[in-house]
Design goal:
about 220 residues; alpha/beta; Rossmann fold; 2 domains
């Protein structure tokens, strides 16, 4: 076996270990978050605000940005639209007055078609409005991604493309206009001149940096207050 082959096998082995560890931690986080939501719901206040989504919501320190506002974070890293549909009863049980919804990037990461993402988001809104009469749903655009932020960016951003993200966002805006609900275009605040997420606003091409969440929080603030 040549030195090059040994190096390639070692690198491949390391990547397998990293991916395995990531999937284990992701699964552990899902289980823990779902358990936590059930416990918190026992003391949750109605007429609150709920953020509902995936890791972009899960990792958003919204309580720090909006002190004094009763907010419940119902984001789970790795979630897709179908996952939100499976756990939507947990959100309905709180009976919030407003729900900030963002979901879909992980669907695209699994090669879901934009029209499927839109159909599922439409169904999520249907179920939220049916379960909580009078609730206000605010839909946030998908964020741009980058395969060029760091060397791991191609792996982390994966199969997502800004072309598909833009397509989903166009259809999301149309959907929100048709349903007469607010659509918040945060994509425009995070994108750079190349159509990627600005390097200062992302950690690795997918997830949001502290500076990025600062931009997001300021854009969302009018909908919170």
């Amino acid at each position: 076996m040549s030195a090059l082959e040994i190096v390639l096998i070692s690198v491949l082995g390391a990547l397998v270990i990293v991916v395995g560890l990531y999937l284990f931690l992701l699964k552990t986080n899902v289980v823990n978050r779902l358990q936590l939501f059930k416990v918190i719901n026992n003391v949750a206040r109605p007429d609150s605000i709920v953020f509902f989504g995936d890791s972009l919501t899960d990792f958003f320190p919204m309580q720090d940005f909006f002190p004094g506002v009763t907010i419940y974070n119902r984001g789970i890293a790795g979630d897709k639209t179908v996952d939100l549909l499976r756990r939507i009863d947990n959100v309905i049980a709180i009976r919030p007055r407003k729900i900030i919804l963002q979901i879909g990037t992980n669907d695209l990461g699994k090669r879901a078609k934009p029209k499927t993402v839109i159909a599922n988001i439409n169904r999520i809104i249907d179920e939220l409005q049916a379960g909580i009469p009078g609730v206000e749903v605010v839909v946030i655009s998908l964020y741009p991604i980058s395969h060029h932020r760091i060397w791991l960016s191609p792996i982390i951003a994966g199969l997502r493309s800004n072309k598909c993200i833009n397509e989903v966002n166009r259809e999301l805006e149309v959907l929100c206009k048709r349903r007469q609900i607010p659509y918040l275009d945060l994509h425009a605040k995070l994108v750079d001149h190349k159509g990627r997420i600005h390097r200062d606003y992302t950690l690795e091409g997918l997830h949001i940096s502290g500076l990025g969440y600062g931009v997001i929080a300021e854009a969302i603030r009018p909908y919170i207050n």
